[in-house]
């Protein structure tokens, strides 16, 4: 590009543009390489990288991690209902109450 006296900053702009373009291409190649590396690694471990996030979400939702445990009051109330219905005896109720209150 010939030097034009009416545009004194033009060669500097060209160098700056080349540096920015080089950095953009380098970042793109790095991101693409990382994605390919992770995909290959997951495939070798028997995991489908395209469905990994949804597979993990399903496993977490089906695990005990998100399951709410009833409070002591709720568990004691359930024992009272079971005893009132005759499902458990008074002795079983007393034993279960002790276990709940000790925990």
Textual characterization of the structure:
- With 103 residues, this protein is mainly α.
- Helices cover 71% and strands 0% of the residues.
- It contains four helices and no strands.
- It has helices at residues 10-44, 52-62, 72-85, 90-102.
- Helix 3 runs antiparallel to helix 4.
- The longest helix is centred in the N-terminal third of the chain and has 35 residues, at 10-44.
- It is rod-shaped and about 95 Å long.
- The termini are far apart.
- The relative contact order is 0.05.
Rg over alpha carbons: 33 Å
How far the N terminus sits from the C terminus, by CA atoms, comes to: 82 Å
| Beta-strand percentage range | under 5%
Number of strands: 0
Element order: H for helix, E for strand? HHHH
Could you describe the largest sheet, including whether it forms a barrel? none
* Low confidence ranges: none
Overall body shape:
rod-shaped
How many helices in DSSP terms? 4
The percent of residues in helical segments reads over 70%
Residue-averaged pLDDT, rounded? Answer: 89
- Please state the structural category: mainly alpha
In a few lines, what is going on in this structure?
With 103 residues, the chain is mostly helical. It contains 4 helices and no strands. Helix 3 (72-85) packs antiparallel against helix 4 (90-102).
Which features characterize this protein?
103 residues, mainly alpha
């Amino acid at each position: 590009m010939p030097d034009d006296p009416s545009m004194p900053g033009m060669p500097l702009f060209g160098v700056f543009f080349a540096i920015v373009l080089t950095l953009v291409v380098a970042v793109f190649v790095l991101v693409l390489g990382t994605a390919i590396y992770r995909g290959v690694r997951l495939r070798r471990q028997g995991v489908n990288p395209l469905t990994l996030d949804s597979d993990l979400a399903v496993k977490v939702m089906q695990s005990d991690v998100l399951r709410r445990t009833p409070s002591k009051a709720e568990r004691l109330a359930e024992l009272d209902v079971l005893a009132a219905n005759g499902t458990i005896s008074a002795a079983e109720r007393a034993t279960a109450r002790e276990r709940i209150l000790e925990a």
